[in-house]
Hints:
Layout: E1 12-16, H1 27-39, E2 44-45, E3 48-49, E4 57-58, H2 72-79, E5 83-92, H3 97-107, H4 109-112, E6 119-125, E7 128-136, H5 145-159, E8 164-166, E9 169-171, E10 178-179, H6 181-197, H7 210-216, E11 223-230, H8 235-243, H9 246-253, E12 259-266, E13 274-282
Parallel strand pairs: 1-5, 4-6, 10-12
Antiparallel strand pairs: 2-3, 5-7, 6-7, 8-9, 11-13, 12-13
Amino acid sequence: MRVVPPLLSAVAFCLAFTGIAPATAAEPDRLVEAINAYRGEVQRCGGEASEVLAPLAADARLRLSVEGVGDLQQALAASGYPMVTVQAISLSGPRDATAAMAALQESFCKVLLDPQFVDIGVNQQGRDWRIVLARPLLDGRLGDWQAEGQALLQQINVARTQPRQCGDQAFDAAAPLRWNAELGAAAEGYSRAMANGNFFSHLGQDGRIPSDRAELAGYRGGAVGENLAAGHGSPRRVVEGWLASPGHCANLMNPRFDEFGAAYAVDPQSDAGIYWTALFGAP
């Protein structure tokens, strides 16, 4: 896969519709919910199937004016958002979130399904909309991959202490996971592969799947699950995203899993900048 050099992406799009309707205060929030539901399922876009993605986090600093596109970098600097990459979509015409979502799916699926974006802001004025997706700067305070993998483990074990609803599945509180060195090594290798190869997928560029990678690292468990994340600069943001995504949440709460390994890797030349892998194992 082609490696793309780092750049500031500030793109504005416009679709024209007809008619005028008053704005509804709740519609921007409904559109964020619809976009996250769309990202939370496998989609076909540009002839390819997407990965299931964790939801975008609504950030008030990204709710920019719908009047004129202006300079996105300056606008976000003024709002206090420390961005690396941003894309803005402007729509003119949709009367509500349902109509806006239909327009986005038709023309901007690649933007909505880009794993590098982690935050979103939506603004609406009448039938004019502005949807801003962004990725913030890393804070530079991450430790090595073992330390941050252990931090993920601690936060996941806190989450497992409480019953939780993951989409349609209800989970009781589960026993804590314990660190496994082989799963950690497999996670580190795969995070590095995604960062250096500039891709985001459970299927490796070598054709291997999570259980293959765990076995090659020496893990002898009977079952393996995998969660991936990209663009998030802290274990807290990673776990928050997984808990809000039914499939990721189900892996995290699955009582069958009792071992865990995780790691991150950074490549400034990759689209998302930082990539996380968590592997869950069972006897």
